[in-house]
Amino acid sequence: MKVLGISGSPRKDGNTALLVKKAIEFCEREGVSVSFISLSEKRIEHCRGCRACIKPPYKCAQEDDVSEILEEMKSADAILVGSPTYFSSVSGKLKSLFDRTLPLRADNYRLSGKVGGAIAVGGSRNGGQELVCMNIHNWMLLHEMVVVSDKETAHFGGIGVGRNPGDVLKDDVGIKTTENLARSLLDFIIK
Ligand SMILES: Cc1cc2nc3c(=O)[nH]c(=O)nc-3n(C[C@H](O)[C@H](O)[C@H](O)COP(=O)(O)O)c2cc1C
Prior knowledge:
Layout: E1 2-7, H1 15-29, E2 33-38, H2 66-75, E3 78-84, H3 92-99, H4 102-106, E4 115-122, H5 129-142, E5 146-147, E6 158-161, H6 172-189
Parallel strand pairs: 1-2, 1-3, 3-4, 4-5, 4-6
Helix pairs in contact: 1-6
The structure holds flavin mononucleotide (FMN).
The site of flavin mononucleotide (FMN) has 19 residues, from helix 1 and strand 4.
């Protein structure tokens, strides 16, 4: 079993990366293999809408770092996606990645049945993190993934507050909901 964590922040060691790492470290302690990708280090072009990828061999016409991320997604049993809250939505970089996953859907729903969870961080307590989680959930649902929430706290996933990198480590609710999300996810993939 493998859990993939993706941080959609352009800040390498920002709050989103810290919470996604909390979640995958939790999974690792439970004996599950994990991997982590920060989009901050990846070159991700926007989808051009050419639709070349919807026919065999289901490959984007652009050469950048997206193909290696899609391979990681295909090999995972569960995917945790985190994003900073940007104007109450996901980061532009994460949205570009979401759009570029069209070939996985076109190729007979390659993410179908994988378990997914969302993590969002915002600078304000009510800054739109729930909307960010719903953006992420919507992407997962369109890939026929199984969306889970945070066990016991049971809302939208891991939701943190923090403005400067590291702030989120002082947010007990953010850490608790993130670990509860990881627990929920493991319940689905470990039989
Ligand atoms: C362009 C931009 C838009 C933002 N919009 C919001 C927002 O709508 N709501 C909010 O709570 N925080 C907002 N923030 C603050 C970030 O969500 C916050 O700093 C977060 O910790 C960033 O995560 P990171 O450290 O992983 O990059 C915004 C920050 C930027 C740079």
